[in-house]
C-alpha cells in the first residue's frame, strides 16, 4: 500500500542536504510513503503514482512530533495545586506523592484508559513518537504495572522508580535506593528501555543517581536524567560525564554545565510547559544553541508540573519565551526529540525513515508559533 501526498506548499524534511537550511525545507513538494516507510521525496511536478493520493492544497507537511518526555501513567489530577500556584504558591515536587496515592489506588484498566486518552490527545496534536515514564507507583508492583501499561503504547518506556522517596521510606532513603536498584529494577526492567532519576534537592542526590543509573546500565537500560529543574545542581554535569543521550529540564544552568553538554553531545531537553505551569523562569534555548548544544523540546505531560500534551504549545512558548526561531523550535520537537531518544528513523522525512507525518492547516511551520492555541494539525500519519 503506497500513499502519495502532493501539492505540499512547504515540506519540512529535516534533511540539511535538501536546501541547506536547518529544516531542509522543500516547496511545491510531494512525498511517497510505502509500507510504513518514506520511499520518495521530490517535487510535486515529478510525483510518481501511488495507491492513494492526498492533495495537500499548498499546506505544510512536517515529520510527526517526537515527544521524548512524558509521565502519562497516573490517576487523578492536581488542578487545585495549579490554581494555588497561579495565586502565588510555589511549586513543590512533594505534590508527586498526591499522584502516587491516586495511582496506587487505581485499577490497571483505569490507568490504561488514562494513557489511551492522553496518547490520543497527543496524536491529534501531531505527536507520532512518544516516551512514557513510570514514577507514580514507587512500589515494586506499582512500578512494574505502570511500565506494562505504558508498553502497550510505546517501546520508549522509562523506569523512574527514583522519582521521589515514597512516604513509607521517608525515614530510610538509603533503603529506598536499595529497593529501586534491587527488586524494583528486576520487576521493571523487562518492560523498560530507559532508566531515569530525578536528581534534584528534595529528590535524589548525585551519588544516589550514579548508583541507580549504574544498576540500570547493568541490566541493559539506557540512562537519562531529570536535572536542574528547581535550581542549579550536579545533575546536568553528571549526565554529560556519563555521556547520556539526554538530560531534561535544564532550567538552571551554569556556563560550565552548558560547555559540558556541548562537549559530551548530550541533548538538553527543554520543557517550557513546566515553566508555564510552575512560574519558574524559562531557560534560554538561544544560549544553548549558540553554544553548540543540541536542544530538544518535549511536553513533560504530567498532572503536577505541566499538564499539557501539546507540542505545538511548547513550540510557541519556545519561540516567544526562550529565544528560539520557529525553525529551531520545530527542529527541536522533531529531530531534536529523536536525538534525545537516540533514534534516527523518526524526526525527519528522508527515504528509509518511518512514514510519520503531520499536515498543518497552514502554509508554513511558522504558523505553529504565530497562531498559538489554534488546532492547526489537521491530519497525522503514523507507521
Ligand atoms: O518532570 N521533575 C519531576 N517530575 C515531574 C513532575 C511530576 C509532578 O509534579 O507530579 C516533572 O516535572
Ligand atoms: Fe518529567
UniProtKB/TrEMBL annotation:
> Which cofactors are reported in the record for this sequence?
Zn(2+); Fe(3+)
Cofactor binding: number and manner? Binds 1 zinc or iron ion per subunit.
**Binding-site positions, Fe(3+):** 69, 71, 226, 300
Keywords, comma-separated and alphabetical: Cytoplasm, Histidine metabolism, Hydrolase, Iron, Metal-binding, Zinc
Q: Which domain of life is it from?
A: Bacteria
User: What reaction gets catalysed by this protein?
Assistant: 4-imidazolone-5-propanoate + H2O = N-formimidoyl-L-glutamate
Q: Quick check: keyword Cytoplasm in the entry?
A: yes
Binding positions (Zn(2+)): 69, 71, 226, 300
Q: What is its EC number?
A: 3.5.2.7
Binding positions for N-formimidoyl-L-glutamate per the UniProt entry: 136, 302, 304
A GO BP term here is: L-histidine catabolic process to glutamate and formate
Amidohydrolase domain location: 52-76, 85-364
**Binding site residues for 4-imidazolone-5-propanoate:** 78, 136, 163, 229, 305
**What does the entry list under GO cellular component?**
cytoplasm
Query: Where does the signal peptide begin and end?
Result: none
* PANTHER family per record: IMIDAZOLONEPROPIONASE, IMIDAZOLONEPROPIONASE-RELATED
Record-stated family: Belongs to the metallo-dependent hydrolases superfamily. HutI family.
In terms of HAMAP family, this protein maps to:
HutI
Chain's role: Catalyzes the hydrolytic cleavage of the carbon-nitrogen bond in imidazolone-5-propanoate to yield N-formimidoyl-L-glutamate. It is the third step in the universal histidine degradation pathway.
- This one is known as Imidazolonepropionase
> What gene is this protein translated from?
hutI
Amino acid at each position: 500500500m503506497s500513499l502519495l501526498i502532493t501539492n505540499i506548499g512547504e515540506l519540512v524534511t529535516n534533511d540539511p542536504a535538501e536546501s541547506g537550511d536547518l529544516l531542509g525545507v522543500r516547496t511545491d513538494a510531494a512525498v511517497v510513503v510505502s509500507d510504513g516507510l518514506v520511499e520518495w521525496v521530490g517535487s510535486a511536478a515529478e510525483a510518481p503514482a501511488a495507491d492513494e493520493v492526498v492533495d495537500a492544497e499548498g499546506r505544510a507537511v512536517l515529520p510527526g512530533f517526537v515527544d521524548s518526555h512524558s509521565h502519562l501513567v497516573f490517576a487523578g489530577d492536581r488542578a487545585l495545586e495549579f490554581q494555588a500556584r497561579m495565586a502565588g504558591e510555589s511549586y513543590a515536587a512533594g505534590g508527586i506523592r498526591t499522584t502516587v496515592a491516586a495511582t496506587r489506588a487505581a485499577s490497571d484498566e483505569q490507568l490504561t484508559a488514562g494513557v489511551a486518552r492522553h496518547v490520543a490527545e497527543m496524536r491529534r496534536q501531531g505527536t507520532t513518537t512518544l516516551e512514557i515514564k513510570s514514577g507514580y507507583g514507587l512500589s515494586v508492583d506499582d512500578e512494574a504495572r505502570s511500565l506494562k501499561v505504558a508498553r502497550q503504547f510505546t517501546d520508549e518506556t522509562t523506569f523512574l522508580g527514583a522519582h521521589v522517596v515514597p512516604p513509607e521510606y521517608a525515614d530510610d532513603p538509603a533503603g529506598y535506593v536499595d529497593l529501586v536498584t534491587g527488586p524494583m529494577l528486576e520487576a521493571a526492567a523487562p518492560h523498560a528501555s530507559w532508566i531515569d532519576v530525578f536528581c534534584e534537592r528534595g529528590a535524589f542526590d548525585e551519588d544516589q543517581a550514579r548508583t541507580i543509573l549504574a544498576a540500570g546500565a547493568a541490566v541493559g537500560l539506557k540512562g537519562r536524567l531529570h536535572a536542574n529543574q528547581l535550581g542549579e545542581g550536579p545533575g546536568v554535569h553528571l549526565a554529560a560525564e556519563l555521556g547520556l543521550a539526554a538530560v531534561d529540564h535544564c532550567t538552571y544552568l551554569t556556563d560550565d554545565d552548558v560547555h559540558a553538554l556541548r562537549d559530551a553531545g548530550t541533548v538538553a531537553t527543554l520543557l517550557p510547559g513546566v515553566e508555564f505551569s510552575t512560574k519558574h523562569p524559562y531557560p534560554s534555548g538561544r544560549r544553548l544553541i549558540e553554544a553548540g548544544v543540541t536542544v530538544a523540546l518535549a511536553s513533560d505531560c504530567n498532572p503536577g508540573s505541566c499538564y499539557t500534551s501539546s507540542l505545538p504549545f511548547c513550540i510557541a512558548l519556545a519561540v516567544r519565551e526562550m529565544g528560539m526561531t520557529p525553525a529551531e523550535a520545530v527542529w527541536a520537537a522533531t529531530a531534536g526529540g529523536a536525538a534525545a531518544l537516540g533514534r534516527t528513523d523518526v524526526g525527519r522525512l528522508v527515504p528509509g525513515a518511518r512514514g510519520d507525518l503531520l499536515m498543518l492547516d497552514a502554509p508554513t511551520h511558522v504558523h505553529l508559533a504565530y497562531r498559538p492555541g489554534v488546532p492547526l494539525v489537521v491530519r497525522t500519519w503514523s507507521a
